[in-house]
Write a structure and sequence with these properties.
There is one protein chain. By secondary structure, the protein is mainly alpha-helical. It is 57% helix and 4% strand. It contains eight helices and two strands. It has a two-stranded antiparallel ribbon with strand order 1-2. Helix 2 (22-31) packs across helix 3 (39-47) and helix 5 packs antiparallel against helix 8 (128-137). The N and C termini lie far apart (38 Å). The relative contact order is 0.11. InterPro entries: EF-hand-dom_pair, EF_Hand_1_Ca_BS, EF_hand_dom, Myosin_RLC.
Length: 143
């Protein structure tokens, strides 16, 4: 039941000590290309918990964030973690690396289908809001 959440926790818990710390957050964000995260931002993230962030606290926090949320909003929010500049886009290469190396890995065929359905622009950017819309509504939004 908790398999995916356990994998997510393990990815974030970079030093594998069973607690998500400010340093773990800094390391995981750096691994996603976010190198200049301010200390205050990391402290604010960690302070959302009432104490040390172990797996149980992580699940509780995640559940609280999802309560009453629209599925599309939840998915968009997940992508926004990868888009700190709030552009609405993420780099194709970065998304492909995540989808083929983390958790439930995408196959080459699944990646081919993803890019066929959601081709990146000439700069290699992928419109994740469009992906989220199709995931939750089943069809492309009219522009």
């Amino acid at each position: 039941m908790y398999g995916r959440m356990d994998k997510a926790f393990t990815i974030i818990d970079q030093n594998r000590d069973g607690i998500i710390s400010k340093d773990d957050l800094r390391d995981v964000l750096a691994s996603m290309g976010q190198l200049n995260v301010k200390n205050e931002e990391l402290e604010a993230m960690v302070k959302e918990a009432s104490g040390p962030i172990n797996f149980t606290v992580f699940l509780t926090m995640f559940g609280e964030k999802l309560k009453g949320a629209d599925p599309e909003d939840v998915i968009v929010s997940a992508f926004k973690v990868l888009d700190p500049d709030a552009t609405g886009f993420i780099k194709k290469d970065f998304l492909q690396e995540l989808l083929t190396t983390q958790c439930d890995r995408f196959s080459a065929e699944e990646m081919k289908n993803l890019w066929a359905a959601f081709p990146p622009d000439v700069a290699g950017n992928v419109d994740y809001k469009q992906i989220c819309y199709v995931i939750t509504h089943g069809e492309e939004k009219e522009e």
